[in-house]
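New to this. Please check this record:
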Amino acid sequence: MKFLFTFLFFLPFIILLSQNDTTFQSNEGLNIILEESTEDDEDSQLFNLIEDFKNNPVDLNSASVNDLLKIPFIDFYTAQTIISYRNDFGYFKSETDLYSIKDLNKVSLDNIISFVTVKNEFADESAILNATSYQNIKMKIRSRVIEDIQNRKGFSEKIYQGNKYKFYNRLKGELKDYKINILTEKDAGEKSFSDFYSVNLNADNFYLFDKIILGDYLIEFGQGLALWGPYAFSKSGEAVSSIGRSGRGIVPYSGTDENQFFRGAAARINSRKFDLSIFFSSNKIDANISFDGSITSTPLDGYHRSENELTKKDKTNLVMTGGIVNYFANESTSINFLYFHTKFSNQFIKEKIYDLKGSDFNFYSLSYSGVYNKLYINGEFSFNGISAASINNVEFRINKSFSLAASFRNYPRNYYNIFSRGFGESSNTINEKGFYFGLKTKINSTSINVYYDQFKFPFATFSNPVSTYGNELLIDLFHSFSSKLKFRIRYTKEEKEISTESNNINLIDIQRKQKIRIEGIFNLSKNFRLKTRAEYSCFTLKESNYKSRGYLLFQDLRYSPSPALSFYARLIFFDTDSYDSRIYQFENDLIGIMNNTALFGKGSKWYFIINYDLLNNIIISAKYSELYQPELRTLSSGLNEINGNLSSRISIQVDLKF
């Protein structure tokens, strides 16, 4: 296997010498965004967010700087340059006109091109009005089935009540300003074919309303301290543009997270200087209920496979009402106010001094954003009736090749809010202070991103009985030798205090994680691309004198013999001393699925994906993956345990467009 990988590692260099200078055209920018921002779980919903952006692209001819900044990881300089170009040279005729802007680099544009559009304002309006209703209807249907080949413990012991298949079905329909979304999902082991369902109707320009949503929806506000969806971007290799957020307000929900969304109605009224959004929701969510009827926890996994898991399904009802007022001083400056009230049908019990208590909660929040020449500022202050959380960000563009960003966050110990998802080291926006500094520079064909994040947990947490602190450093260098050869090297280091036990004595130790990644991307022709990566991980505990190391190597290829057919394959080898030195790797999958699985122990993994576009309106996709760990007798744990050292999975999906 080592000989095979050595050969595969040097194969791109051998082939490269015999290729013509052509560029592989792919949606690589989209994959970069997903990989840079993936959370550490195996079923992240971030792809749904990406698809929402793709399905609702920003119009280049009407967008403001703030509108463009809603695009994932677009930097302030790029957004400002696009607007300046439009003001100087007139409207864009096509999205590809962006590549005519000399001050923007191709890599940045590749990352955003999928999220912008140019609406044809010169279309024949009479032809549109005379078109039949049938011609105006657009429909997208997606059906997917996934099966693990090996039996897991929950099935072999007949604890799971359903079959092994995971089903997903979604229908999206559009008629002019009206859109409908219907979704059903069944996880493996669940009995009901529609264990989870989601429906919404979205209308734009409906009488007095700029937007109205009936059914399931999300709310994104400010920097996510008070209200945000179940998924958000955080620290990444884009050191400058990853901190500030630009909330989209009320948006239809099309994800599969079964608890972190709202069900009811929401509407927005827009005027020249103000817009007002109002919303109401009544939604049942999963909860563990004690003998006295109190909520002990609100699990978010959405699994209802066994009798025990079914006992927590839809056990409490959450009612929410609220509103958002946005004031626009100009097209680049806004101030926004949010209020909402929530009421649970059950009380939260209080085990620790700063735990959630009660059933009624009120939240108030003020956010701002503004563009002033080369400066972009944004932030949010949120109050839960007891304490206030805040974050303030600034991005400064020195010139077209150099940008700086800084952020300070303060999340008090008693700022509890189950809907928040603020930027930070932890995801629960509580008991954390931090200062973030990032810079991005470009020298000829080399881009350098650096960030340093220093954080502190002022009071005890679930895992640490005392105050702790930490810091994180990232250095990312990306160089483009030519259109067919690109190279990346990345170094990350994180140090933090953790609670450990030695000789029956509790002590605070310093945990250090270091990772080095080297990657080469080889566009061998316009339809053939190779990517090679080597990564090293080192985990240490200073006081305990403990060390764990890990290695990962992979080679993948993407081949498109025709615009309608594409193949993707990856071969991975990994060897780590323990789970502590695990290495995450973003794994390509069927459209709509995103995995960032942790690999640890010793073994190999490979997968193969095929996509075929039939007649431009039927896309058939399939994936087969196989994980092999020869030194183990079982894989995974608990009811998901597999008896043996091989885990394989097959997935099939059909996308229809009418």
